Amino acid sequence: xxxxxxxxxxxxxxxxxxxxxxxxxxxxxxxxxxxxxxxxxxxxxxxxxxxxxxxxxxxxxxxxxxxxxxxxxxxxxxxxxxxxxxxxxxxxxxxxxxxxxxxxxxxxxxxxxxxxxxxxxxxxxxxxxxxxxxxxxxxxxxxxxxxxxxxxxxxxxxxxxxxxxxxxxxxxxxxxxxxxxxxxxxxxxxxxxxxxxxxxxxxxxxxxxxxxxxxxxxxxxxxxxxxxxxxxxxxxxxxxxxxxxxxxxxxxxxxxxxxxxxxxxxxxxxxxxxxxxxxxxxxxxxxxxxxxxxxxxxxxxxxxxxxxxx
Length: 310
Hints:
By secondary structure, the protein is mainly alpha-helical. It folds into three domains: 1-89; 109-209, no CATH class; 210-283, no CATH class. Helix content is 63%, strand content 8%. The strands form three sheets. The protein has a two-stranded antiparallel ribbon. It has a two-stranded antiparallel ribbon with strand order 3-4. A two-stranded antiparallel ribbon has the order 5-6. Strand 1 (80-83) and strand 2 (86-89) form a beta hairpin. Helix 2 runs antiparallel to helix 3, helix 3 runs antiparallel to helix 4 (62-73) and helix 9 (177-193) packs antiparallel against helix 10. The radius of gyration is 33 Å and the shape is flat. The relative contact order is 0.05. The model is unreliable at 1-5 (pLDDT under 50).
């Protein structure tokens, strides 16, 4: 009886299907690549399957999505791709790849001020595309590799809209904390619609909206943690806010409010003093070390002379 040592391209391709169903992606990829080399199966479908396997371990990598998108753009033999027990619509997967690439690139970008405002607007445009182009359908990649079908185009819309307003709040908070508080309030609304916690948003709304009178200079500042800070202090009951104060100058009997200017002046001066004391301490330690080294050297000389005199 003849024993077949090597599989042909078609056999490798068929075997890869079973391996994918069992989740043996590494071996399935090896079979798919060999089947392409041997002109087995359907090469353009196999190329998409290889790209999907590569993506499975790099779900936040732009290049992995771009490689999959390139493979899908070359797909001409079929409008669908089998992957394990799933049959994927190629056009739907193309759309998801393109949107995900934009999402990763936007979320990884940085900036400040007006740059964050523009980033927020770009995120809103992306959110609208998720809603109109995917809508209530589940995201394919999340379903395949995370077994989570709850993430849809609509949930991505709410999530990205929340992130967009949070980003715009970060861009506005230094110049206009009240506007930043409004953006955080809007973001909280989108998170609530998406079934997510709004605790962090509401904390920032409270902080950005809070106004104080600086205990030291008397200036009025809005935006706790940005334009003024609460600092620990020993405040006796007799030290009350004056009736003419526009806002409280203390959080309680153990804390006072200090505006950013006074706070930074105190911090900078404290740093200067600490640095000076550090330098003085280092100089004293170096001088002490030099004295000890000299004493050790003198003692070693005495020992050497004593040995020579024996």
